[in-house]
Amino acid sequence: MGRLISPGEKRTALITGASSGIGAAFADRLAEKGFNCILVARRTEAMKELALRLEKDRSVSVEVLTADLSSDAGIAAVEGRIAEDPAIDVLVNAAGFGTRGVFAETDPRKIESMIMLHALASARLCRAALPSMIQNRRGWIINVSSMGAYFTAPHFVTYSATKSFITMLTRGLKSELAGTGVRAQALCPGLTRSEFLFTDEFRDVNYGRIPFPFWMSADAVARKSLAALRWNRAVVVPGLGNKLWVIYMKLPVIGPLFQWMMGRMAGARY
After folding, report:
1. Which residue of 6, 11, 219, 259 is 20 to 30 Å from 182, comparing CA positions?
2. CA dihedral in degrees (153, 223, 144, 157; nearest 10)?
3. Is 187 helix (H, G, I), strand (E, B) or coil?
4. Which residues are identified as catalytic?
5. What is the pTM of this model?
6. Residue 46, pLDDT above cutoff 60
7. What is the DSSP secondary-structure string of 71-124?
């Protein structure tokens, strides 16, 4: 992988969605590696609590930037912060939310918010961060996609579409960045134990029916992602269970069966 930081040298990572879940786990792991952190999310108090812990436990500098990345103003605020600091070496686009429902019955504003947050924010922040990374000939871009990029099911149409965009964006970036010293990774986690799956949107989903091997902790997802940077792969699916799931989804009979099962768990009307 090569060392992005040398002993005694401080680098900076900007992490979106850093108030909880995978984003917070990335902040913790990067701080452990010696990175100063810029935390970006909507929930200021949660980020402040994390910042205090990281500064105390990891001896790094942590900045909190409150921004709603489902809005143009929020994206512009983070773009401006990136422009101020050419020393940002790592960008983790982890902000996201899950939703479900029949596409034709979904509030158009919710569809727009998801496209803005998952697709447009990720693309614009990559565009903002890359020029200085390329000039410095070092940097990591980690875009948090999803297993949902590999398939879709009733009630998850917009989510899967936006995650597919993130994955394809990152694949393209990896090709363009060859030889620059900058690495791009689309991280495609499966079911992750975090607040993401336990909101009101999913309150009636019976997660007990999902086998244990398909679950991972947010910390395990972040660790697998960072460890995989050494191989410079465009797409990383963490966890053996998730890797097998991707293989199954491509099989002629089992793939459609898996999609049917996902739709049933989401409450699809067949």
Report:
1. 219
2. 10
3. strand
4. 159
5. 0.86
6. yes
7. SHHHHHHHHHHHHH-TTEEEEEE-------S-GGGS-HHHHHHHIIIIIIHHHH
27 Cβ partners below 8 Å, 6+ apart? 13, 15, 18, 37, 39, 50, 54, 62
CA–CA separation, 32 and 1 (whole Å): 17
Distance between first and last Cα of the chain: 48
The pair of structure tokens assigned to 77 is: 């605020």
What is the band of 131 on the pLDDT scale with cuts at 50, 70, 90?
very high
Let me know: does 41 contact 95? Beta carbons within 8 Å. Answer: yes
Please, what are the domains in the chain? 11-266 (3.40.50.720)
In this structure, what token pair is assigned to residue 222? 């972040």
Q: Angle, nearest 10°, between helix axes 240-249 and 254-266?
A: 110
pLDDT, one tens digit per residue, over 163-213 is 999 999 999 999 999 999 999 999 999 775 666 555 566 555 555 555 555
